[in-house]
Amino acid sequence: MSAREAEPGRPPLERALIVWVAAVAVLGGAWLWALTAVPPAVRPLTAWSGGAAGLAVALVLAAVAHHAAAARRSRAHLTGLADGAARLERQAAELADGALPLLVRHIREGASPDAALAAAPRPDSAALRRLLHALAHEVAATERSAAAARACAASLHDELRLIAEETLPAAIERVRGEHATADRVLREAPRPADPLAARLLADAVRALADGERTAAATLTACASAAARLQEMITGMLAELHELQFRHDEQEVFDDLLDLDHRASRMGRLADGVALLAGGGSARRWPGPVPMEDVLRGALGRITDFPRVRLHGTGDAAVAGHAAEGVMHALAELLDNATAFSPPGTAVHVYVEEEDAGVIVTVEDGGLGMRPHERERAQRAVSEPPGPGNLPGPRHGLAVVGLLACRLGLRVSFRPSARGGTGVVVLIPRRLVTRQEAPPPLLRPSAEPLSVPAPADEPAALPDSAVRFVAFHQAGRDPE
């Protein structure tokens, strides 16, 4: 039964008035009949009491009719509301399960809100139709905003990828290789469309250029200081050579040799600093240097040289242009071997000549190196440092790496059969020559100082280490 059918045609007040009029008519007739039927003596009483009772009954009937009509009207209204709520809930469920997902799918596929509304089922309720219309336009606006955000994010990602993979590496190469200024690099590089990406690129390039200028200035200062130090040490060694030839007293000669040895160690340190700063050694050798003299020259540049034992040196020689670098590299490795092994143990050096070149093996009896320490040491000698990753206080392996890169040496670490660490150095065949006859001991040429040996004295030994060996049997079993 619908609400229209259940709801009475007249309002409750009208129905009450009709009932009251009908009751008054009926009761009035009965009241008049009663007045004619009763004796005249009681007729006034009957008239008053009957009229009052009739009016009261009529009012009661009207009130009952009013409440009954109101109750029927309320029940009909409630029934209509319940039916409307059920219908609205059914239409909302149909909208949520059918029309709305279909509408969203069409809009996400690129359809306009009106086209999506035309393709989706339309609910019967006007309110739901308005709701669906508003949702269609809101979803379309949201999709447009999301598409714009995705396009912006994709564009920013492409720009950042271009900066990271192409622009920034090219800028780094130009700043470091060509020493180009930051403004020139930024002017010639592709400019990102996004202001934030452009600012990021500009800040990175300027910071890189500032760092490179600072590093270059620092390295220049270090190289200049190292060159002056090398010049002073070279001059000191030349003067010590002359003093050794001039004084025959054994005590004075021993003191001069000690000073010579200390100066040679200082020279190794200065050469290391110069190499790390981009320079080189101040000493040059005029011709091939026998392998034994190379090893003894390396011994003369370390502190604890008496602990080193040489086991055969062969008759090979190192080309003069590479002798100083090989000597320095071996000195750094021997210094590490003596520094990281117990004081009472010996460090053994073996020399073998193979088809690939001369192999020098240094073995100590220390605690050895853990695998990760050995890997770190191998990286240090295989990847020479640049201006941005100079080593810390202990830079011996970094110097070995630089020299190995310049000369083509191959340096590798392995566990030693003596319990410590073994270092294998391969001097390539192109740096190796052979001495047909034992030559006179040579003296390295010094730049800028070069003091010749006196004509009436024997020629100077290759380095302070050779002179130490000649007088103190360094590197051999003591007498």
UniProtKB/TrEMBL annotation:
One of its GO terms (biological process) is phosphorelay signal transduction system. One of its GO terms (cellular component) is plasma membrane. Residues 368-392, 438-458 are annotated as: Disordered. It catalyses: ATP + protein L-histidine = ADP + protein N-phospho-L-histidine. This is histidine kinase. Keywords: Kinase, Membrane, Phosphoprotein, Transferase, Transmembrane, Transmembrane helix. Its EC number is 2.7.13.3. InterPro entries: HATPase_C_sf, HATPase_dom, TCS_sensor_his_kinase. Residues 321-431 form the Histidine kinase/HSP90-like ATPase domain. Signal peptide: none annotated. The chain crosses the membrane at residues 12-33, 45-65. GO terms for molecular function: protein histidine kinase activity. It comes from the Bacteria.
